[in-house]
Write a structure and sequence with these properties.
The complex is a heterodimer of chains A (275) and B (434).
Chain A (H helix, E strand, L loop, with lengths): L10 E7 L5 H13 L5 E4 L10 H12 L4 H10 L6 E4 L2 H6 L7 H10 L3 E3 L9 H10 L2 E3 L1 E2 L5 H10 L4 E4 L14 H8 L7 E4 L5 H9 L4 E4 L1 H13 L3 H31 L1
Parallel strand pairs in A: 1-2, 1-9, 2-3, 3-4, 4-5, 6-7, 7-8, 8-9
Chain B lengths: L7 E2 L2 E5 L5 H16 L5 H11 L7 E3 L1 H7 L2 E6 L9 H15 L3 E6 L3 H13 L3 E6 H6 L1 H9 L3 E5 L6 H14 L4 E4 L9 H9 L1 H14 L5 E5 L4 H7 L25 E9 L16 H4 L1 E5 L1 E6 L24 H8 L3 E7 H15 L5 H12 L7 E6 L7 H10 L5 H4 L2 H8 L1
Parallel strand pairs in B: 4-14, 5-6, 5-8, 6-7, 9-10, 9-14, 10-13
Antiparallel strand pairs in B: 1-2, 2-12, 3-4, 11-12
Helix pairs in contact in B: 2-4, 4-5, 4-9, 5-7, 9-11, 10-11, 14-15
Classes of the chains: A alpha/beta (275), B alpha/beta (434).
């Protein structure tokens, strides 16, 4: 499933780790995201050394690995999901690189395409090293999404613009992933720097509430990416041994609130431009 | 500089880091080129002066009489254990902290396995008046308590890392996260020739003073070059430090079928000795390699910012490594060392935990030098391969073993090694017999 048309209205892009805390629950939670209004789902494929993640997502990755998630099981997991929403695979380069024979990331991309995956976010793969993966994505018709940080230099922006497709992931603040209580003022400045890129702009890192979602979209984003605030719900479910249905319901409600926030933000933006 | 103009060593190296860190490593490369390579603002002079006066360089190249007798060859010891702090780590730590100061950074972070790099960084930071935070795996904090205390005495904050098995691999990941959050005012002092470009090249340059001195000293003492240089290899910083200045001494490896027995003139064998741990076999089910022999058994992959050889499973998940020596206990290795092994310039060897422990005792008894457990691996190689050393060999004594006493005594007894007998007070036994 492709990403075409996904950002026609303000999009809600949630993230969960596949297989967290186990395969069965995780499937229910990912489907709950779709029912709650997800427009694209960034689905983490766990890697043992997730250097870009904060403690919340890192713990989710540990749970999923302990429950036996592997790249092959990940692809089957995606194939078995009962959803009508494109899935973007978020993982680290070593897993793509090691898959199949030693032909770089091509085998991985081929298998991902077969599983219906729409694209990739690979946080430890800079645009400069992305040639082989970009080539394989082009061959199989997948998107490759890059993350722009508040510290990204103008030179690097130009390089990234050349290789990004699908959407651009705008990192709202410095640091690693994790829910925060405020929205960083770095966001607007970074959004302005990619305003003329020919792809939608989705903002992530630290978005937790409906209000954050509204503010970010009203500030010019085409979508919001939310990970840790959702992973927190899964983590609490795992630690308190709550039923899958209860946790799924909470995930669904949280997703619906964040999607509503994005829509509110879109309306605020339209209102402000028509004033 | 060789092989590394683009941050690559053959197929290894590169910059595989989150976007937020890219500007920091670009800034670092500029500063490295400006101050270290081009010598702006007299950086090299200040570093040399501080290494001499604060660090105690040059360290001696000592003729080891007992080991020379034992192996019927001439064994020389490059005494990095006599450097301030008790290990080669200060060369790099002082270099990087000074560079951070030149760059206008106002906070230092580091990670440490055995504690030697953390200690050296804490000392350098105190010496240069910079606040310092050191991440250390919980397991390592437990087995290297004296170094934790030393870091704290030097004013550093030691932050335990509880993820994974609580060793160096996890501590590096945690320090990278801190760096990504505080990149504008913080410099990350990576402790080995690992990580994204320019770290592998820069750390090697800071450590290459070991080989530079050793080369000059051996010429003074013998009139020529050694036949071999032996160093232990975890990440590989003391290894490359000892090897770099000998890299062009016969860049072509000796042919394996050379039956003449003659060594080519000026050929220096470079031997990197890894931790074979308890076994070279991997337990994929448990995700554990009971060794840290990355050069000998690892596969190519991407970890902690570089493409290099790694201990990993078939899916690309990084395996937990093992060594009785915390300082060698790492699942990766420096990209330059991986390249030099691939191209035949460096030979990779490994020795197991038991042999390293026996070597620790042997060298302590024979030479009056208590070597770091890391270094004991290099000494164990001499015992196992005395015929490979040639007429003259240099062993890089990467550090001193005080930090390892607790581990060594416990492990020697638990494993019931021959050396265990020497740990008991002989007079006690004699008393009992009367």
């Amino acid at each position: 499933m492709s990403l075409d048309g996904v950002f026609d209205e303000p999009a809600f892009v949630p993230y969960l780790v596949a297989g967290d805390p186990d395969r069965e629950s995780s499937k229910a939670y990912v489907e709950a995201l779709a029912e709650g209004g997800a427009d694209v789902i960034e689905l983490g494929l766990p890697f043992s050394e997730p250097i870009a993640e904060g403690p919340t997502i890192q713990s989710a990755i540990v749970r999923a690995l302990q429950a036996g998630m592997t790249p092959d099981r990940y692809f089957t997991f995606v194939e078995e999901l009962d959803i009508d929403v494109p899935v973007v695979c978020m993982t680290y380069y070593n897993l793509l690189y090691q898959y199949g024979d030693s032909d770089g990331p091509r085998s991985f991309v081929e298998r991902a395409a077969e599983a219906g995956i729409a694209g990739f976010v690979v946080p430890d793969l800079p645009a400069e090293e992305a040639g082989p993966l970009r080539e394989a994505c082009d061959e199989f018709g997948l998107d490759l999404i890059f993350i722009v940080a508040p510290t990204t230099t103008d030179d690097r922006l130009a390089t990234m613009r050349e290789v990004t497709s699908g959407y651009v992931y705008v990192q709202a603040r410095l640091g690693v992933t994790g829910a925060r209580d405020d929205v960083s003022d770095q966001t607007g400045a970074t959004l302005a720097r990619v305003a003329d890129w020919p792809v939608p702009k989705a903002v992530g890192f630290g978005i937790k509430t409906r209000e954050h979602a509204r503010d970010i979209v009203a500030g010019g984003a085409d979508g919001i990416i939310v990970g840790s605030a959702l992973v927190d719900i899964v983590a609490r479910g795992a630690s308190e041994d709550r039923s899958i249905d209860t946790v799924a319901q909470e995930v669904r409600e949280k997703a619906a609130a964040l999607k509503a926030g994005a829509i509110d933000g879109g309306r605020d933006r339209v209102d402000s431009t028509t004033d | 500089m060789t092989d590394s103009h683009d941050g690559k060593f053959g197929r290894y190296g590169g910059q595989y880091v989150p976007e937020a860190l890219m500007p920091a490593i670009e800034e670092l490369r500029e500063a490295y080129e400006r101050y270290v390579l081009d010598g702006a603002d007299d950086f090299p002079t200040e570093l040399r002066d501080r290494l001499a006066d604060f660090g105690g360089r040059p360290t001696p190249l000592q003729y080891a009489e007992a080991l020379s007798d034992r192996y019927d060859t001439n064994v020389y010891l490059k005494r990095e254990d006599l450097l301030h702090g008790g290990a080669h780590k200060l060369n790099n730590a002082l270099g990087q902290v000074l560079l951070a100061k030149y760059m206008g950074k106002d906070r230092i972070i580091a990670e440490t396995g055995a504690g030697q790099h953390g200690t050296a960084t804490a000392m350098a930071a105190a010496h240069l008046g910079m606040p310092c935070e050191v991440y250390m795996g919980e397991t390592d904090m437990e087995r290297q308590r004296p170094n934790v205390q030393r870091m704290r005495l030097n004013g550093a904050t030691v932050t335990p890392v509880t993820t994974g098995r609580g060793t160096l691999k996890e501590a590096i990941s945690e320090t990278m996260r801190d760096w990504a959050s505080n990149v504008e005012d913080t410099h990350y002092v990576i402790g080995s020739i690992v990580g994204p470009d320019p770290f592998p090249e820069m750390v090697r340059d800071f450590q290459s003073i070991i080989g530079e001195e050793a080369r000059e000293q051996i010429r003074e003492k013998t009139g020529g070059l050694p036949d071999s240089v032996v160093a232990c290899a975890g990440g590989g910083s003391n290894t490359m430090g000892a090897f770099h200045e000998f890299r062009d001494d016969c860049a072509e490896p000796r042919s394996a079928d050379d039956s003449s027995g003659q060594r080519p003139r000026d050929h220096v064998d470079l031997i990197a000795v890894e931790a074979g741990g308890s076994s070279l076999e991997v337990d994929e089910e448990r995700g554990v390699a009971p060794n840290s022999a990355t050069l000998s058994t690892g596969d190519e992959g991407v970890l902690h910012g570089a493409r290099t050889k790694l201990l990993q499973d078939a899916d690309g998940q990084i395996l937990e490594s093992h060594s009785v020596s915390a300082g060698l206990d790492y699942s990766g290795v420096g990209p330059e060392l991986a390249h030099l092994v691939d191209t035949g310039r460096v030979q990779a060897a490994n020795v197991d935990d038991d042999d390293a422990l026996e070597a620790f005792h042997r060298v302590s008894r024979l030479e009056g030098i208590i070597p770091a457990l890391e270094t004991a691996h290099a000494f164990a190689y001499l015992e196992a391969h005395p015929d490979a050393l040639g007429e003259t060999t240099i062993v890089n004594v990467s550090g001193r073993g005080d930090k390892d006493l607790e581990t060594v005594i416990e492990q020697t007894r638990d494993r019931d090694l021959d050396a265990a007998a020497a740990l008991d007070d002989p007079t006690e036994g004699a008393e009992g017999e009367r």
